[in-house]
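Run log // design_07
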């Protein structure tokens, strides 16, 4: 019985375990590092773009409210169909 488990145990300890340990610590290191400065700057730029687009959408909706007061109702009816 011991001979039956010897070969898989040796294979596990020489092949699988080292790869497993390296991958574990690599992913732990990446998780600990977090975002770098370039990623943070990109996120900030995206958030600024989102804010600008939100303002534009609100401006367009206010224009539509002034020129076509029932546009929301028409849009809701067409969305239901």
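design_07 sequence
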């Amino acid at each position: 019985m011991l001979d039956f488990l010897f070969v898989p145990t040796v294979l596990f300890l020489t092949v699988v375990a080292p790869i497993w340990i390296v991958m574990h610590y690599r992913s732990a290191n990446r998780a600990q590092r977090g975002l770098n400065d370039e990623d943070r700057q990109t996120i900030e730029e995206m958030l600024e773009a989102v804010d600008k687009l939100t303002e534009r959408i609100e401006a367009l909706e206010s224009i539509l409210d002034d020129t076509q007061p029932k546009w929301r109702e028409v849009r809701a009816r067409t969305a239901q169909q």
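The chain has two domains: 1-34, 37-81.
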